[in-house]
Structure formats: C-alpha cells, structure tokens
Amino acid sequence: MATRSRASAWQALEATAATSPSLTVVTGPAQVGKSTLVAALAGSRAAAGRTHLTGRCCGDAEGRFPLAPLVEALAGAGSLLPEALPPIAGTVRAVLPELAAHLPPAPALPDGPGAERHQLYRGLHALIAALRPVLVLEDLHDADPATWQFLRYLVTRLPSGVSLVLTARASAATGPALADLMALAADGTTIEEIGLRPLDVPDVRHLARRELGTGDVTEAFAHAVHRHTGGLPGLAGALLAAAGPAPAAQAEPTAIEPLLAGLPVPTATRRAILSEFARLGTAGRELVSAACALSTAAGSDTLARIADVEHPLAARAAQEAVDAGLLTALEDGRLTAAHPAVRPVLRELVPAGRLRLLHHRAARHLAAGPDRAPLAALAHHRRHAADPTWPRYAEAAADAALREGRGEDCVALLREALDPSRGADRTRLTLKISRAALTGRPDPRTVALLRRSLADDELPVPARGEVRLNLGLLLRNQNGAGADGLDEIARAIPDLSHAPDLAARAMSALAVPSINGWPIPRHLLWLARAEHLTADLADTAMTVAVHANRATTLMFTADPGAWAAVDALPARPAGPAERQHLARTYGNLAHATVALGHPKAASRFLDCAEGLLRDTDSPYYTGLALTAELLLAWTGGHWTDLEERAAAAAAQYADIPDLAAEAALLLGLHALASGHVGTARRHLKEAQTRTSLDTGIVTTAAAGALSRIDLASGRPDRAALHALSAIDRVRHLQGWMWAAEVAPSAVEALTATGDHSAAADLIAEFERGLRGRDAPAGHAALAACHALHAEGTGRPAAQLWAHTRRAWAGADRPYEAARARLATGRSRLATDQAGASDVLAAIDEFTALGALWDHAQARRLLKDHGITPPSRGGRKSYGTSLSPREQEVAELAAQGMGNIEIADHLVLSRRTVEHHIANALRKLAVTSRTELAAALATGARTPNGH
Length: 946
What we know:
Structural class: mainly alpha
Number of strands: 8
Distance between the termini: 28 Å
Strand content: under 5%
Number of helices: 46
Largest sheet: 6 strands, parallel
Helix content: 55-70%
Radius of gyration: 35 Å
C-alpha cells in the first residue's frame, strides 16, 4: 500500500467518513500522527450534524478487558440515544451499565456461550445503528480478541449512517487482520485504506513556519529538524517548540546541528519510547540496546551476535521492536533505530559497563567482517568502548574522507581525535584540520579551534605559519571575513620563510583583489612578490596554485594579459591538490568574465570547473561555480527558472556569505525586472549586507538597482547616495572595470539633481580607469554614461543610445541592450514620433525577457506621447486568490504601513495601492487591516494555493 502525505490522507479520510456506510483504515508507524489526523474529524464536515465517538484499545492481548474500545466509545452516549430502541439493545446492560437508564430491559439469555456472545454483538450493532455515528477506534494493534471478533461481525453488516474509522500500526501482526476486515465488508460499504507516512522535508518546513510564526525558515533548518525527528510530527512539533524563537529557523547550517542536538527529548516522546521498550521481551530489549549502540544499520543476525541473543529468538524479537516503533527496517532488511530520539533515551537505560561491552563487540564484529571495515565506525565504537587506540582510527578515517573529497567529514573526525592528542600528534592533526577545512562549509567551531591553537603558542613556527595561512584563507573565502582573512594571511608570511611554496601561496592569495579589499596596486605588489618565488618552488601543486591566482588576479582586473595566463594553466590536474586549485580558479574566472562582459569565456570556464568538481564533494567550490552559472543566466537573459534556482542557492549556501549575497542579488534584480519593487529592495539590501569579498558585481549591481528604484520614484538625491557610495569604493580601489553596474545610475542621478559638472567628472574618471582594460561591459556602461549625460543636459542623445545598445548587445547583455533601445526611442520621441518604433521593439524585447517593470515604463512612455500601446493580451485571473501584487501590498499594510508609505515603497500611485487593498479585503472576507493581518498569518488564499 502506498503511503500518503498529510494533505492527501486528510482529503481521503474526510471524504470517506462523510459517506455511509464506510470503513476507513488508517495505518502507519508509531508517533506518525494517526491520532491527530482522525481527531480532526470531530470538527470537520464529515461529522457535521452527526455523533462522533472515539475509543482506544488498551494493550489487552490476553482479553482481560473485552471490547474495551467499544465500551469507552459508547459509555458516554446515553443522552444521544433515541427513546425507542429495539429490545435486543438491552443485552449491552452488562457491559455498559452507564447506559442502563436509556436501554430497554435485558432479554433472556440464550443457552451456550456462543449464543450469548452473538446476542451481545447484536445488541451492540443495534446501539451503533441507532446512534449513526462517526465511530473511531484507535490502536487496533493493541486490541483484545473480543474486539477483533466484534469488528468482523460489524463490518459484514455495517448499518447505514455509520462511518467506521480504525487506526493501527502497520505491522506483521495487524496487517493481515485489517486486510481480513476490509475483505469481509458488506457490499455497498465504501472502503478506504490510508497509509500515513512521516513528514518529508517540505512538510517539516511548513510545520516550522506555522509553529515558529515565521515564513523565513531555511531549507537547511528543515533538513536538520527532519534528521533529528525522522519526520514524526509530534516529535518535530515538540522540538520546534523547544528550539524557541524564530531566529533559530534562520541559523546557519553549522549552528543548527548543535542547537538541535542540545535540546532535550520531549517528555511525551520519552514516555512513549520507554513504555514501548518496557513492553518488549528480554530479547527485544537487548536487540534494541545493541542497535542504539551501533552507529550504522545492521542485520538482525549481527544485532543478535552483538547483543548475545540466541539466533532463533532474534528474528521474532526484531519484528516486535519494529512493530513497537523502536527499530525500523530498511529496504535491504537491515535494522536501525526508528528515529534519532530513540538512541539517547534508551542509552540512558543501559548501564555504562554494558554499553562499553556492546561497543567492544560491535568494533570486533566490524573488524572481523568479510568487507573492509568502515574506519569511522571503528573509531566510534573503539572510542565508546574506552579503547585508547581510537584516535588512530579516527585519523585514518579522516584521511580516507579527504581523499574522497569529503572535507567536512574529515574535519569532524579530526576535531574529535584532537582533544586527547598532545605534542607532535596534536600539531599534525591541527595542520590536517586547517587544510581540510578549506574545501568545506564554514564552521565556527573549526575557526575557534584554529584560533585557540595559534593563541596557545604550542605550535612550532613552521606549522604555525601554515595554520595561520589556512585560517586566513578560510576566513577570506568561506566565512565572509575578508579583511580579517587578509590580515591573517599577511601575518603568516614571516613564519613561512622556511617554506617558499607556502609563502608564495600566501602572497598569491593576497594578490587576488576584491571590492572590500585593498587598493589594486597593493594586491599587484603581492602578485609580483609571489611570482619572484616561483622559480624556487619544489611543490608542483603549489606552483599551479600561484599561477592560478595570477590568472585570477589579471582577469579580475581586466588585464589583457589574463588570457595568456589562463592558457598557461595545466590542461589536466596531476593530483587532488591541483584539482582543487584549478576548480577554485575556474570558478573565479567564470565570475570575473561574467562581470567583465565575456560570456562565452565564462561559459567555457564553468565547463572546466564543473568537470573538475564532478568527482569531489566541496560545497564551497561547487557553490562558487553554481552562483557564477546563475549570474551568467541573468546577464544572458535566460530567466525562465532563475528565481527558483537563485532561491534554492540562497537556502543551500546560507552559511557562505558571499555565495548567499550573490543569490540575494539575483533575487533582487529579478524581482525588480518583474515589477516587485518592495521584494527587490529587500533582497538588494540583503545582498549589500551579506557580501564580504565581492569580486566585482554584488556591491555595484545592488547599488545600481537601488538607485534605479529611487530614480523611478522621483528621488534623485537618494539615488545618488546609493550609487555614489559604491562609486567611492571603486575609486578607492582604483578598480573602474567593476563600475559597469553602477556608473550609469550614478550619472543619471547626478544629472537629475542638476550636478552636471560632477557627472561629467565621473564620466571622465571612468573613461581613464577603463583605458587599456579588456572590459566589454565597462565600455558599454561608459557609452550609456555619455548618452545619459547628453540627454540630461539637453543635447541629442539618440545616436549615443544606439551606440550603447550595440555595445551591450556585443557583450551579450540583452536586458541592458533592450533598455538602451528604449532610451533610443525616448530620445527620438522628443522630436519625432518615429521613435515609437524603437519603443515598440523594446517592448517586444522586455516581453521576451519577462521584464515587466521596464515593459510598463515603455508603455507609459508611449501613452505620454499620445501613442496607444499594443494590447498586452489577457491578464491572468487569480479568482478569489490574491494576485502577487495584491499579496505584496496586503503584507505591507498588515505590517502597519500606510497607503502613502506603501505607494512610496513600491513606486506605485496612492490610488493603485487603495485599489489593491480593497481587493485584498474583499477576497479575504475581512473588513480591517487587523483582520487582514490575521488572515495573511494563516496563509489565506495566496497565489500558492494555501
């Protein structure tokens, strides 16, 4: 039987329970939420105007309390019974004395125990037929024999008006009995079998949003909660409640695991686990204890050997533990703890000596197995068996993980092994940690460990220099602490005098420029020093790293010599270290060439990076290539699924500031082009806040876009502040090849404020800075600056705009080319309506791109000149759901913003805002902004279908 999601299960349950006679069987593992699901029937349309009765089985397999769930369900129904009941109903007096005042006299008892039982069943049937209820009987896996017998009797003659709902754990024992009930059901009975599965990650994310009262729940947080709870709703809900305020849901991935691991197991979950464990037989308890000691899944034979359980008992005991929801059987037949909460709860019950013995047996079993023993598992079991050799196994496992490209696993194992180590062992492990950390995600624990090692002054000078170099690279690249990283790398160089390879690596790292770095001439001095050392390098991988950084530096600075430097890189890496250096380099080269306006080269470099990353697991290098690919899609006008991909990248790399900043930038640029100005402003400001290194596009593109928003709303002073802050940064760095995304906005803002002299000076400075630079995007932006200045000072600009359009088209930037075409038409329309043809062509280009904001501006331009724009086709109808714009306006209103503030924020007219709010109030059937806020909090009728 296929399992179902919560939504699908509820739809099926409600639909079947609304019909009669009907039989619904809900199955699923322990704590999966069966009771919660069926309890919702009481307030549903299925129970409207009907009696709702519930009874629960009490684990009475011996039959000491026969018909317990029926007695519980019916005992309180006396006031609901009709006055006239058939005489046979009197037979239930003996089992339901609470109903005596409402029942007819008991009929004479027939001879024979079988006849007496049959008469009782007839009486219960008559009672149920009179009540016509939705009858819910829960936990049939704990039913007494008499209850099963009565249910077999009942389903063969289920009365009209009765909806019978049964819940049970899916197990080898109850499965056949439930199947038998459904097979026995009389003709005309509607039957529905619902297999309820645990929550998946999207379900957990939705639950977290509801429990924490925030829509901003990262995918990483949802994954972590799912891992810690196995998707069990009750456990997930309790864990979320314990996690506390909403900021936990936006924590960085490396902070999420310790946060959740430190939370106590919820009391209700602990009680349920202990209760089920106590009900197992001795063999079952021993098997579960062994499974909790093991770090991996194992077959029942393996568990039996570790637990010292006789083989004939093991299979049955394992099935009992699975049925109890303490173990789960994987597809390959191996067993493991049913969910993460089982291990910590049950480990507390196992005496420390017994637990050490289980770990010792597990290590011995793994070492003696026919396959090569997993080193990490051996290290885990030897450690918990108090074996002093365990750090040796942990280090060997870490080395294997690093060879396989699993840098994060390597670091985690080495951190564990470092604690008991001293002297040369500690130095060796610290060096390994600093090297392995460079390929993984940022982890504050690793940074703190490396800082402590340097502060304690225990490392010898050679090791101290390398550890400090690697710490600097880690801070600069993954951790978003660019300035701190540069300082650490520079401090490392005096300690690397013994190691020219590492010194050259440090110097070449300092050579790579960024918007938040030093002036470019200072970076180039470090490059010259690194090149001076290359003749003395013995390590070929380090030589490749220096040459790779040289190519990166020259490309970022738009030096024409960059292409020769790239061609000099090795065609194939000679080993894993070279592979990592080249993968990082080609990712950086792709970023540089996207920003400079060399899209074909960027695509070629991306292919190289992806090929090198195919057999490695490096989240940072993979993310570097991915965000470059997304930037290339944006600049190339390939926007079809860009928003979804950028959102996924923002969640996936939330803990790597520069990658997250690039994803936020793309979300902001796409939102602006799509006309969602408020959303765009939020993402663009996030990009500015999060970026650290920024090698050429985030700071400038975000400032340029924010400036455009203010210009469109008639605020040139604010627009100039946005743009000129980024220009000042570019000026300080002497990096004018990075001004392409912001210089046109700065010139437009300055001319709009009437400061034509400052605009002219900026253009001249931009032009001098681009001289001799291979930066097609920069030269196209310079052409736009000239056109804007001419237009702003009343000079003819149509030909300048036409030149600008050709320049942007040559850089394969269709969006900017379409905007330049619109500007061409705008300039021509000032003197001749023939300019409408350029505007119409721009409208077509904006339509193809999906640039609705610019599309609307172009249509307004035609209307301002008395020209009727072409029909846009039918507008999508949202029916009773809010349109995206209505949703955006309604959310701002719910936050307390007034109409004028909203109009200003979204660059709309006040009348348009009033129209959207009126529509939102009507569609959500509310009359005030307070009610509007409450309706939005419940997710009412948004375009996503909530």
